[in-house]
Specification:
Layout lengths: L7 H13 L2 H8 L3 H15 L4 E3 L4 E3 L1 H18 L1 H8 L5 E7 L5 H16 L3 E7 L2 H10 L4 E5 L7 E16 L18 E5 L4 H12 L5 E6 L2 H9 L5 E4 H9 L3 E4 L5 E10 L6 H16 L19
Parallel strand pairs: 3-4, 3-5, 7-8
Antiparallel strand pairs: 1-2, 5-11, 6-9, 6-10, 6-11
Helix pairs in contact: 1-3, 1-4, 2-3, 6-11
Pfam family, one: LysR_substrate
Protein name: HTH lysR-type domain-containing protein
InterPro entries: HTH-type_LysR_regulators, LysR_HTH_N, LysR_subst-bd, WH-like_DNA-bd_sf, WH_DNA-bd_sf
Length: 319
């Protein structure tokens, strides 16, 4: 009985059709003809003995079997592409590329990543670094489909099959328009239960954190507006539309510029930021090196300590 004859090229074409939605878009991406793509997929289906794609009015849909194959193929493709890096690692070299996932509602990309990147670039000049900004739910999905190698996200992380390394505690503050009437006396969050709130849309870790903080204070915030970025949320607050909870690092520059004011809240609010990867895929040498730099950076910062119960180094650094 002969072995299974499935090629990496066939798997890459199938994954591309799943991502791009059609044979024509895949043919354009790989600069080959549509009949070539169709022939390769037909051979893959014959080899596996099942239909993988189903035509619809526009493009293609995966069958149940097709989805299983695509999920497995993403991991196979990622690990195959990591082979040159593993060989270079054996020679003491770190090359290739790595993609870091960040949230657009976190100040990590503007307040931390520039220094992290400079540290990494100084140590590993042959590695190309890309950044993808998405909500936490999307980032977990991209960790599993291979579009992101590792991500900095807030806890808790919703999703299975992930490795987590807590990094630092990020202070959160309540902000209001600079011209809003208030005093300097610390107040509980419940004091602001009847104020209109500017919230982040669903899918972000900060959305869940703010909701949990308000519910702990005994109320559900009344949304005046929702947004998908820190700049938009702070812009709504500047306009006087409502109050919001944001990372302190993001609020300070706007307070210094006289655009918002930080209102003293008791008890103080915070969340834990963590480094996250997929448990299903081994990091490349470039990915492990970036994880190590991020960990070292986090140890150098004057952030509040991560609680002992959360402080641990995961298997991100395994070789």
């Amino acid at each position: 009985m002969g072995g299974l004859r499935v090629t990496l090229n066939q798997l890459e074409l199938l994954v591309s059709i799943a991502d791009r939605g059609s044979v024509s878009a895949t043919a354009d991406f790989f600069a080959i003809t549509q009949p070539t793509v169709s022939h390769q997929i037909q051979q893959l289906e014959q080899e596996l003995g099942t239909e993988l794609l189903r035509r619809k009015s526009r493009g293609m849909d995966l069958t149940e079997a097709g989805q299983i194959v695509v999920d497995a193929a993403r991991s196979i493709i990622k690990q195959t592409k990591a082979i040159p890096g593993l060989v270079q690692d054996l020679k003491g070299l770190v090359q290739g590329s790595v993609t870091l996932g960040l949230s657009p509602v976190s100040p990590v990309s503007t307040h931390h990543f520039p220094t992290i990147y400079q540290m990494f670039r100084n140590q590993y000049p042959e590695v190309s670094v890309s950044v993808m900004e998405e909500g936490s739910a999307e980032l977990v999905e991209h960790l599993h489909d291979g579009r992101v190698d590792l991500a900095i996200m807030s806890l808790p992380v919703l999703g299975s099959r992930v490795d987590i390394t807590p990094l630092w505690q990020e202070e959160l503050v309540l902000i209001d328009a600079a011209n809003a009437r208030s005093d300097d006396q610390p107040k509980s969050l419940a004091f602001f239960h009847d104020r209109p709130w500017i919230l982040f849309r669903a899918g972000f870790g900060l959305t869940r954190t703010v909701s949990a903080l308000c519910q702990t204070a005994g109320f559900d915030p009344k949304p005046a507006a929702e947004a998908s970025s820190l700049s938009a949320v702070i812009g709504f607050v500047i306009s006087g539309l409502g109050v919001s909870i944001v990372p302190r690092e993001a609020a300070l520059e706007h307070q210094h510029a006289g655009r918002v004011k930080i209102l003293p809240i008791t008890p103080r609010m915070s969340r834990i930021m963590a480094l996250v990867t997929s448990s299903d895929a081994m990091l490349t040498p470039a990915g492990r090196s970036l994880a190590e730099v991020i960990w070292n950076y986090s140890r150098q910062q004057e952030h509040p300590e991560v609680p002992a119960s959360a402080s641990r180094r995961s298997q991100l650094f395994r070789h």
